[in-house]
Specification:
single chain; about 280 residues
């Protein structure tokens, strides 16, 4: 089979509902790499909370974080690494007006650093649970433009917050509202999305779009599913993603949907039984 680039969203896709990689998923993805295919993680997660999955899979491929805003090779110094950023003044302006905007938590982040207005209780792992004095989000500590901003907000302020952010900064940023029950908003550099990362991967590995298979489940996966020659929506994915995908997994993320699909699609040998 022609070498494929396999682009994997994490949450709701490759990870199960306990945010874990199952034994079957690990075995299958390692088999895909051994067969000569490229497996790349393309996630909205920051590197801080996705590196463990990259390492667990034993990957050496390029990784995409922050929905396309960061492309890098973990554990390597790589000349082609890129990072799209947001003007730090936007982060500081949001911090100054957080109460008026109904923002409860603000996290600013790049590949190596995270700053937040306060520590999280751990309910959502996107927000840091412990902060050093240097990680408190303020003008003195935030000395560089962050790659992404993540906002936890009062649900009653949702539309007003979105409208206000677009009115203030719409020429410079794009917004992505989380699916599911959490009122969380991601702020990114204007025009940057998962397809940005996927196009970078295609160029890096000299792979045509026809040879890209991408898996996703939520709105932030839309451009990636659309860009790939073969976009696969998860059985648990939203209807909008299923509508634009070329196929849908037979089972959901909590039942190894990606692994089962790839075993058939790539004609991989049967994976070993799960560890006892």
């Amino acid at each position: 089979m022609t070498r494929k680039l396999i682009a994997l969203d994490l949450d709701g896709t490759t990870l199960n509902n306990q945010s874990q990689l199952s034994d079957l998923t690990v075995q299958t993805l390692r088999q895909a790499v051994s067969a000569g295919h490229i497996v790349s993680i393309v996630t909205g997660r920051p590197y801080r909370i996705s590196q463990q999955y990259y390492d667990q899979l034993g990957l050496t491929s390029t990784m995409i974080n922050f929905n396309g805003s960061l492309g890098h090779r973990p554990h390597q110094t790589w000349a082609q690494e890129y990072q799209y950023t947001i003007d730090r003044d936007i982060a500081l302006d949001l911090l100054a007006h957080q109460q008026d905007l109904g923002i409860e938590t603000i996290a600013a982040e790049n590949k190596q650093h995270v700053w937040a207005n306060h520590a999280s209780d751990g309910t959502i792992d996107f927000f840091p649970q412990g902060l050093t004095s240097e990680q408190v989000l303020n003008k003195a500590n935030l000395t560089t433009d962050p790659t992404a901003l993540t906002l936890y907000f009062d649900e009653h302020h949702r539309q007003n917050l979105i409208d206000d952010l677009l009115s203030r900064y719409g020429d410079h940023i794009d917004l992505n509202v989380w699916g599911g029950s959490w009122p969380v908003l991601e702020v990114a550099h204007k025009g940057i999305e998962k397809a940005t990362g996927l196009a970078f991967l295609a160029k890096t590995y000299q792979i045509s779009r026809d040879d890209i298979i991408a898996f996703g489940d939520e709105n932030n996966d839309r451009t990636m599913i659309d860009y790939a020659g073969w976009g696969v929506a998860m059985a648990n994915g939203i209807s909008d993603i299923k509508a634009i995908a070329q196929d849908v997994t037979t089972v959901d993320n909590d039942h190894d949907g990606v692994a089962h699909y790839l075993q058939d699609y790539l004609a991989l040998p049967a994976a070993l039984s799960k560890a006892e």
